[in-house]
Amino acid sequence: MKKFVSLKKNSDFRNVYRFGVSAANRYLVLYKFPNKGLGRRFGFSISKKVGKAVCRNRLRRILKELCRFHLDRFSDDCDFVFIVRQTSSDQDFHQMEKHMWHVWGKLNKQEKN
Which cysteine pairs make disulfide bonds? Predict the structure, then answer.
């Protein structure tokens, strides 16, 4: 099983935001940016507007687990950043999974065009 690696540095997040491709729906925004041989890395950004710390951490844990569970579906040597929108605060695991794949499909369509 491959290792789950998180983005930590602010400069890495800025590169993904500036040069990456994005897709969004009501609940999530997903950025994808190819990195040069650094492997598959994930970052999560959840604003304080989403809710209190308990809510934000629950959403981060849900997304992290979804990414870990479906690790083989994500491209190698790419950075992914998920931005959780305020409307996601009451979503459960299965709903977030559905929203994640919806955004993933939009991103793949956008890349093909």
Answer: none
